[in-house]
Amino acid sequence: MREIHIIGGGLAGCEAAWQIARAGGRAILYEMRPQRRTPAHKTAALAELVCSNSLKTEQENSAPWLLKEELRRLGSLLMSIAARTRVPAGHALTVDRELFAAEITRAIESERRIEIRREEVTSLDLERAWIIASGPLTSDALAAEIARVTGSERLFFYDSISPIVDAETIDTSIAFRASRYGKSLDGSDDYLNCPLDKPQYDAFVDALLAAQSVPAHIEQDQCQYFEACLPIEELARRGRDTLRFGPMKPMGLIDPHTGRRPYAVVQLRAENARAGSYNLVGFQNHMRFGEQARVLRMIPGLERAEFLRYGQVHRNTYINAPALLTPALQLRTAPNIFFAGQISGVEGYVESIATGLAAGRAAMEDPPRAFPRETAIGSLCAYVSSADARDYQPANITFDLLPKLENPPRDKKQRHAEVCRRAVAALDAFLCAHV
Ligand SMILES: Cc1cc2nc3c(=O)[nH]c(=O)nc-3n(C[C@H](O)[C@H](O)[C@H](O)COP(=O)(O)OP(=O)(O)OC[C@H]3O[C@@H](n4cnc5c(N)ncnc54)[C@H](O)[C@@H]3O)c2cc1C
User: Fold this and answer.
1) How is domain 161-315 classified at the architecture level of CATH?
2) Which of 70, 257, 272, 432 has the most CB atoms around its CB within 10 Å?
3) Topology classification of domain 3-152+319-433
């Protein structure tokens, strides 16, 4: 029986282990928590979500939907558990994070072809087959070993997580329930919205700009933010209106108290099924905790908010994938080693699950096969293995990663629908050909 050693019981590692077990192999899954912690994980559970509880939109014919749809067709464990642990949040696939992690842990623990070893891996025996899925917070010793084996330097940049408040401490006589443009998963209004008028917005931006930050761990000029995850104070520094056109945009929202669109809005999304806590959407920041409490309580409706978690800044580790990997996520110089998840050079929960699934399947094949280029999963792996290695940036799934249509419809919606239809057909054909 083929035996694969997987480092990291996160999103990618759990999905990879499941795929190996499904394909008749044996997976040995190493997870260093709880003995060794990371700066972001809070529990010992496998597949813990470290920040938002959203797996992005389920709007049909969008790129994030397509990737999830392909994963469902490929028998993804994590997608099936996401469906079972879903909480209402407009068009987004949002999960109860505790239930999600608990169910995945239970499924992996009870699969007899998977053995879990709660230990840190610090060196790689090159005689064995490996999937490295140790995530953005890979332990230092393993990162050094990866640098040795790949011959390349580690790459770092800052990333950040958003604050969570206790639902009972939100003033709902000010914060109103609504989803943008009335779009909602089940007809209810899933978000709480804190409205700001112009003087309130200006005062908030001033306070944000003046607030004290946590001291940087590395020099500011070495600090690259992933553009989709910028801290709010960095956005505020880019211009007075940048927040109003970004995470604080009021589009599609009417305040029932005034009958008008607010000048700016802070959206709060339920964190769990009971809506006992709310996440400040897009409010990742790296202010000192005391400063966060003071500045964020200036937001109307949050004057007495209790913070269950503050925004934070963390390291991100990823390899220079285009210089190192094949489209099957295999290390070119050491074919026994595969990479998956954030460390393989993708960004995002679902992208991490997708590369976990791809690496798990590929590791069981001889020779490992890449997914068709027309599919979202195939395009993600193609990007990872063939983008420009000189200035590599991790990618979320977007339509521009997929090949262009030969005769594209002019209408964007039709174009996207056609790309999705082509992707699903290519995946179905690929699966039929390899039964
Ligand atoms: C602070 C932060 C916030 C983020 N927020 C979001 C977000 O809101 N939405 C989003 O889509 N993406 C987010 N990401 C990006 C990314 O999608 C997630 O980090 C995701 O969890 C990556 O999945 P993974 O499986 O690659 O890594 P992880 O889920 O982190 O799993 C890796 C596992 O490997 C273990 N490990 C590490 N080193 C070793 C070792 N040497 N031996 C054994 N085990 C080891 C870790 O303990 C961990 O459990 C965030 C990343 C960070 C760092």
Assistant:
1) Beta Barrel (2.40)
2) 70
3) FAD/NAD(P)-binding domain (3.50.50)
